[in-house]
Design a protein that fits this description.
By secondary structure, the protein is α/β, with parallel strands linked by helices. Helices cover 36% and strands 21% of the residues. It is globular, with a radius of gyration of 21 Å. InterPro entries: Amidohydro-rel, HutI, Metal-dep_hydrolase_composite, Metal_Hydrolase.
Length: 405
Amino acid sequence: MKRTYWKHCHVATMRDGRYHAIEDAAIVTCGKHIEWVGARSERSASGTDACVDLQGAWVTPGLIDCHTHLVFGGNRSLEFEQRLQGVSYADISAAGGGIKHTVRHTRDATEDALFESARKRLLALMREGVTTVEIKSGYGLDLNSERKMLRVARRLGEALPVTVKTTCLAAHTVPSEFAGKADEYVNYVCNDILPKLAEEHLVDAVDAFCETIAFSPSQVMRVLLRAQKLKLPVKLHAEQLSPLGGASLAAEMGALSADHLEYMSADDAAAMGRAGTVAVLLPGAFHMLQETRRPPVDLLRRHGVDIAVASDLNPGTSPALSLRLMLNMACTLFGLTPEEALAGVTRNAAKALGMLGTHGTLEAGKTADFVAWEIDRPAELAYWLGGELPSRTVRHGEWRDLTSV
């Protein structure tokens, strides 16, 4: 098995969510895994090791985008204009726009068309150092269309050098054919969509949208309970637009994460801290919707809740093609430190996907996914606005080449 000695670098290991910086460091990889990380003075290359000079780069774990809706048909630039003219997200949804608009376009699109459009978006993320991405369904809202979306997500992970985790978000909104029959639609999700897609091995986790414009806590609980019976981990969109106690419900259900969280309470934060449920903050949606109520970051810190940051890439409320821009927004809009923001797209993002045992930090035994950045200090990843920072990405112990994909 190939062993490589990566030298002349500085490493932000992100162990325990901190930089834990090692200057003048080295990394030894063996095949797809990290064998050793430490000060270069502590270990030299053996005679059989391949040697790579990283020329003074700062090395971080590969970035992880733990919340995206990357596969969809059409776009909602018209709604962007409407919101700027004062129309609310809730009003747009009630008029048949919002998620319902994307559902129509996604149902009409072929699998190949969805793959090609999603591939371009995913490549944009990958060029900024993303090595793992979560992709949700939720714009199909019937069995065949949800299956189509999840098949595309799986294809992306097979066609591109990136790890893809899939999440079934069939409980995203009530489709038009079930208008006024939310409970019946939840039955359909629980009895038809989830079991069949799980049987086809298309689902890694299950999510739901707990909100006044989507599903009530009791309806969401039914979905999450069904997922758990299928032995699938769960997560939840919660407290984005109103305080419904979804974050506490997520904690009660042992969810991997609760996401958005602008309206969460102190009780929600305490429950998440006790349960180990990750708080996934989505500054792109906050920015696009021009919200003013920030997630209570101080409460999350006080209760020891791990904080992740994600793009929420979607066609309506966060058409974000840059996870690195989300680092800046997490700092400037939500008050995270650059160190917390970087932990949010590495260590804590891995935890939000149930992957902390193998990803998210640079430690012996973990997957050899990392990025070598031409920067002077890690805070630059959250500092620069726009543009591509010069970098090279290693995935599974090998340089990743995006020129031919």
